[in-house]
Amino acid sequence: MGKNFYKTLKANVPFVDDLVINEYLDSLGQKLVSQTDKPDNNFKFFILKIPTINAFAGPDAYIGIHTGLILNADNESQLAGVLAHEISHVTQRHLARAMTESSVSPAAMFATMLAGILLSTQNPQAGAAVFYGGSAAMMQSQINFTRHNEHEADRIGIHLLRNAGINPVGMSDFFGKLLKNADSNNILAQMEYLRTHPLNSTRVAEAQNRIETNDKKLPDDSLDFQLSKARIIVTTASSLTELINHIEKLNINQQTIATRYTYAIALTRQGNTEKSITILNQLITSHDHPWFRLDLAKAYETNNQPDKALSVLENLLLLYPNYLPVTIEYARALNQLKQPEKAIQILKQQLKKKEQPVVFQALAQNYYANNQITAALEATSHQYELEGYLQLAAQQIDYALKQTDLESSTRQRLVSRKNNLINKLGKEQSFPN
Ligand SMILES: [Zn+2]
Q1: What is the C-alpha R_g of the chain?
Q2: Distance 82 CA to ligand 1 centre (A)
């Protein structure tokens, strides 16, 4: 069920595909998950490019966050507060229990949930209406279980935050902020979060009461959060020119590191790479951070200086071996400079850490560039399998088997892989998930 939910979302809703932000969100999420009593649960965190403020726990520990929520969070602890709350909905089996107790079938419930998310990408008000108008029975069952569940998710979430070493004050702060904005500006349509997670001043006060004195000493922000937010500001900006003009009007002394970073990446995107290279170098001198260097490489590349880009990435890889965003960028740069063999080597190393679709995708590109067609098809087959497209994965193996001059060991491996995929596909069709 979770995989299908995710696949349907992926096919219909714009995702934030920025590896840097996704890796950041995943590490923050996993830090919290590691404090639960089910640390082995396979949580998947992702970001949807939707301007409304919302987060949701879908089936099978798939947790989605809207860009609107990240843009409206002031610091890391506020985002972590929302994540901890969603994680707790999953570990306490709130959704699973609601489905067993409800007369509505799980499939119908998720169809409604999906429809709501899909519609909210176009029109938040219509989305929210569908979300709740889908079925009267479902609505009733939601109201019956929700209040208790919301309190429980807050209570457990605060424990997770504290034990993960994150200031839990952010949770009550963020809820308080949502509630205040909803009252004063009447922008409830922008705040789907309040509809899906009923909130009132009692709940905020209770969350505040759960905070202990020592909690307040825990860190409530990180540079990674502020820089992730900067990247989202740029990718979701309706006009880069306006964004750049806005920053240029600010007094330079009042500009934060994140503002300077926003400025630099917006400049690169607009093609003003020389200016952005200057700013990124200034940032690196004052606060070295791997993302500044990643963007410096990107700026060099956009500025037609691929060799400079490559040497920045080479250095980064030494400092951060197997850090996915660096590996992928480095492999891409090597591919462009016609060095696919070296890229293949580094990508294979990355796979030993974790098998991810994006690594197989990059591997396939480099195999093609190196004229290793069978290996490329096999890599793409692995990519599709991890993404849940078993049929397409098997098809790639069929293509590979049609290659001439296959060594018998390769043929054997391909045939056995094909059989595994067919078996897996058969199981999936008899027990749809
Ligand atoms: Zn909730």
Answers
A1: 23
A2: 9
| Topology of domain 223-430, CATH | 1.25.40
Where are the domain boundaries for CATH 1.25.40.10 in the chain? 223-430
Q: Are strands 55-57 and 62-66 parallel, antiparallel or unpaired?
A: antiparallel
Which amino acid, one-letter code, is at 420?
N
Asked whether the beta carbons of 58 and 66 are under 8 A apart, the reply is no
Nearest to 199 by CA among 242, 241, 151: 151
| 202/69: higher pLDDT | 69
- C-alpha 366, offset from chain centre: 25
Strand-by-strand arrangement of the 62-66 sheet = 44-48, 62-66, 55-57
Whole-number Å distance, alpha carbon 198 to ligand 1 midpoint, is 7
Show the CA angle centred on residue 88, arms to residues 26 and 127, nearest 5°.
80
Of the candidates 60, 76, 150, 154, the residue annotated as catalytic is 154
- The answer to whether residue 154 is catalytic is yes
The pLDDT score that the predictor gives to residue 195 is: 64
Ligand 1 geometric centre to CA of 178 (Å): 14
Report the pLDDT value the prediction gives residue 86, as an integer from 0 to 100: 92
Residue found by looking up tokens 């569908």 in the block? 130
Distance from the alpha carbon of residue 262 to the mean position of ligand 1, in angstroms: 32
Q: Write out the two tokens for 383.
A: 């990519």
Distance (Å, whole) CA 91 – CA 126 = 31
Q: Which of 60, 76, 86, 295 is catalytic?
A: 86
Tokens representing 415 are: 């045939």
pLDDT value, residue 137: 38
Angle at 145 between CA 99 and CA 37, to 5 degrees: 75
d(CA 246, CA 253): 15
**pTM over cut 0.70:** yes
- Distance (Å) of CA 111 to CA 115, 116, 118, 263, 404: 6, 9, 10, 40, 45
Distance 214 CA to ligand 1 centre (A): 25
Tokens linked to 196: 């899906």
